[in-house]
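User: Can you recover a sequence for this backbone? Please restate the input before giving your answer.

Assistant: Of course. Working from this structure:
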């Protein structure tokens, strides 16, 4: 595909903003103009734009400032990437990956940038090298930059001030066994077998978490982890994560506007919540689709009700499985668990002082009944 109108062929409609008529001058002044345009919105620039060294330097300076701003708000590379891919086109997403690779503000970003495969690949001024690589004209490239920077300006301050730590401390053999069980659960076409395998994974990780807590009692501030959700039915999916979190001694809160759930807890439990939630979402969606044999069962109201009921009932059963496992643990475990739960609750209330419960409107009794049955009839006894 040629340069001309390449971005327009993605089907995205730009929102016009005032064109920047003069890109000459020092990079600092150009950066201010670019940030001002990003504040106004995104748009197409009328007429050709020549990518000069001064313009490239100004864009780089503006990007550095706004990446630092996003970091100050608590955003990490994975979060920025997830937000970008939901709101921007592939060119803007690629630009932000390069921007983060070049100007990551602290060491916490390194691991996530590695996971995103973001690196400094260019030797010439980035704006020119990136535009050439993406086959964008100067006008298209600058439009893309302003759209990407506008997203950074819209990012809210993340309410959690807790440490967002990389995954660590969980025995890889245990995680391997859990992943294996969940992979089998996702691949089977029998719901009862899937739930048995999921319950076995829950039991295995609960036992590991108990042993880990007894051997190495944690005095660290509870960690946070963000789990991003894809549309549709994000509120029902968030409920499932909340129920899994509750069954595993964690607390969760849903940022509906941006589509992610923040989970607060110990690293070991956060690993389980993330693994199990992801697998259960796959299983619930497959069961919902496989049993859709009526027109009602293919409606949005039905599917939302199904997923909500499934999340509610599965949460109850996972909690029962956890309680059973804990009941067979040594007696001196209970005070340890209670003390740690108090720390997690206190941290959650500190991170999210304005958190409040929110209900989900259900408009399909048939979907609710089917979702409840799918979870209730499943065999969750791992024996």
């Amino acid at each position: 595909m040629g340069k001309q109108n390449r971005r327009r062929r993605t089907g995205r409609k730009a929102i016009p903003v005032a064109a920047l008529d003069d890109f000459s001058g020092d990079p600092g002044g150009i950066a201010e103009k670019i940030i001002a345009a990003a504040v106004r919105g995104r748009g197409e620039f009328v007429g050709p734009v020549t990518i000069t060294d001064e313009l490239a330097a100004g864009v780089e300076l503006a990007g550095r400032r706004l990446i630092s701003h996003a970091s100050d708000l608590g955003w990490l590379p994975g979060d920025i990437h997830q937000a970008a891919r939901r709101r921007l086109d592939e060119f803007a997403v690629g630009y932000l990956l390069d921007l983060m690779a070049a100007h990551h503000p602290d060491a916490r970003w390194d691991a996530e940038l590695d996971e995103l495969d973001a690196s400094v690949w260019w030797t010439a001024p980035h704006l020119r090298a990136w535009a050439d690589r993406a086959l964008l004209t100067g006008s298209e490239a600058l439009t893309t930059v302003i759209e990407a920077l506008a997203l950074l300006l819209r990012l809210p301050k993340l309410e959690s001030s807790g440490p967002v730590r990389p995954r660590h401390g969980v025995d890889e053999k245990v995680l391997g066994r859990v992943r294996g069980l969940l992979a089998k659960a996702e691949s089977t076409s029998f719901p009862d077998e899937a739930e048995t395998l999921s319950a076995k994974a829950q039991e295995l990780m609960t036992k590991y978490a108990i042993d880990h807590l007894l051997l190495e009692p944690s005095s660290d501030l509870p960690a946070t982890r963000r789990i991003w959700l894809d549309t549709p039915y994000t509120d029902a999916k968030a409920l499932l994560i909340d129920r899994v979190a509750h069954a595993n001694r964690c607390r969760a809160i849903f940022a509906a506007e941006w589509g992610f759930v923040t989970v607060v807890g110990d690293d070991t439990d956060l690993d389980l919540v993330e693994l199990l939630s992801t697998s259960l979402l796959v299983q619930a969606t497959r069961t919902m689709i496989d049993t859709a044999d009526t027109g009602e069962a293919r409606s949005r109201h039905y599917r939302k009700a199904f997923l909500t009921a499934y999340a509610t009932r599965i949460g109850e059963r996972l909690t029962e499985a956890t309680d059973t496992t804990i009941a067979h643990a040594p007696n001196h475990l209970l005070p340890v668990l209670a003390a740690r739960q108090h720390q997690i609750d206190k941290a959650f209330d500190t991170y999210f002082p304005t958190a409040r419960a929110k209900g989900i409107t259900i408009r399909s009794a048939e979907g609710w009944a089917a979702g409840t049955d799918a979870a209730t009839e499943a065999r969750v006894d791992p024996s």
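That completes the design. Strands lie at 223-228, 251-255, 260-265.
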